[in-house]
C-alpha cells in the first residue's frame, strides 16, 4: 500500500470515527431500523427559511438544499472549531451552503480542524454556493 493510499484511508477512517462519535453516523437500512423508522424518502428537505434563530444552518447542496443533508450548529466561539461534515444519502459530505442566524461572525473552512481557506459568513447572511466543500466551522 502506498503512503498516499495509507494517508487517504487513515483520513477516511478518522472522519468516519468523528462522525460516529458526534452521533451523525450512517443510519441503518430501513429494513433493519425497526418499526417507526424514518427513511430518506420520508424526510423533507430543509431550506434557508427553516433555519431557526441562534444557530448556523449548514447544507450539503447549494441554495440551502440537500435531502437529507443539513444540520444546525450553535455559535462557535473565537479560537474554537467544530467539525461540519454531514451524512447524506451518499455518505459523509462537506458543506456547500450556509445561513448564519447567530450574532457572531463564523468562518467555514475547507479543511478539518479549521485549516485551509475560509469563507466568512456574517450574522444574518447566507452563502448560497461555497464553490468548494467546507469541513469545519470556527468563530
Written overview of the protein:
This is Peptidase inhibitor family I36. InterPro entries: TAT_signal. It holds the Pfam family Inhibitor_I36. Keywords: Signal. The protein has 139 residues and is α+β, with helices and mostly antiparallel strands. The protein has two helices and ten strands. It has a domain of 95 residues: Crystallins (Gamma-B Crystallin, domain 1, Sandwich), CATH 2.60.20. The longest helix is centred in the N-terminal third of the chain and has 19 residues.
Summarize the structure.
The protein has about 140 residues and is of the alpha+beta class. The chain contains two helices and ten strands, in the order ααββββββββββ.
Percentage of residues assigned to helices: 10-25%
CATH superfamily of one domain: Crystallins
Sequence of secondary-structure elements: HHEEEEEEEEEE
Mean pLDDT score, rounded? 75
- Overall geometry: globular
CATH architecture grouping of one domain? Sandwich
> DSSP helix count?
2
Major β-sheet profile:
4 strands, antiparallel
The order of strands across the largest sheet is 2-1-6-9
User: How many strands appear in the DSSP assignment?
Assistant: 10
Question: Which regions have little confidence, pLDDT < 50, spanning 5+ residues?
Answer: 1-43
Counting helices, strands and paired strands, the structural category is: alpha+beta
Task: Determine and state the CATH class of one domain.
Answer: Mainly Beta
- β-sheet strand percentage: 25-35%
Could you tell me the CATH topology label of one domain.
Gamma-B Crystallin, domain 1
